[in-house]
Amino acid sequence: MEVYISSNAFWALLISAIEVYKRECFGLLLGYRDHPNLYILEHAISYQTANRRHTSVEKNGRASRRMEKFLANLPHLSVIGDFHSHTGWGDLKGVGNLSTQDLVDMIPGNLYMIIVANDKRRASTWQYHGDGTLSGTVDDYHFRIGGYYLDDYLRAKRANIFCPYAIGFSAKESQQKILTRSASAQRWSRSKR
Ligand SMILES: [Zn+2]
């Protein structure tokens, strides 16, 4: 299974994890299934009424029924699953594995994304990993994004995530930094003249 993440959805996932950081966010994934083995994730909508705790997040039943009904009427897009974050800081590192509750909540045909947000130890560019996840840093945080689904035998599997935007964004960011650095070096050398 492959998951393609749009730039919109990429930022929405990160921003909703950061908004409530140290607590967990929860939201819905909007997009479509282009092929039996490919999900296109266009938007990620954060649930403002989710009950957030450090180690779990629950959705508000009434609000979620209202949202689901509303979203069922969107043209072109549908709810393809949901996302939540696992957070960690200091020595309490958040991990990307599915918890027992995460597994219980999985329904065949749905996509589940977990954003692991941790304090950043050092800056790293956005990159894909052999286990299908995508990771990188922004500001003071390190993120790892993983996608999960149930296979035909109802076993939880990790999907391969693709987000060309995130990979390109890293490249652009480091290029930008080099440019800024050389510009400030020039300014500095000019002022010394
Ligand atoms: Zn979880």
Task: Tell me the distance between the termini.
Answer: 59 Å
Task: State the CATH class.
Answer: Alpha Beta
Mean of residue pLDDT?
84
Number of domains: 1
What is the helix content? 25-40%
Named at the architecture level, the CATH assignment is 3-Layer(aba) Sandwich
Biggest sheet architecture: 7 strands, mixed, barrel
Bound compounds, each kind once, are:
zinc ion
The gyration radius over C-alpha positions equals 19 Å
Oligomerization state of this entry?
single chain
List how many beta strands DSSP finds.
11
Using the coordinates shown, work out and report the CATH topology.
Cytidine Deaminase, domain 2
Instruction: Specify the overall morphology.
Output: globular
**What fraction of residues sit in β-strands?**
35-45%
How is this structure best described in words?
The chain is of the alpha+beta class and about 190 residues long. The protein has one domain: Cytidine Deaminase, domain 2, CATH 3.40.140.10. It has four helices and eleven strands, in the order E-H-E-E-E-E-H-E-H-E-E-E-E-E-H. Strands 1-3-2-6-7-10-11 form a seven-stranded mixed barrel. It has a two-stranded antiparallel sheet with strand order 4-5. The longest helix is centred in the last third of the chain and has 29 residues, at about 165-190. The radius of gyration is 19 Å and the shape is globular. About 30% of the residues are buried. Zinc ion (ZN) binds near residues 84 and 114.
What would the keywords be for this entry?
alpha+beta; globular; seven-stranded mixed barrel; Cytidine Deaminase, domain 2; binds zinc ion; single chain
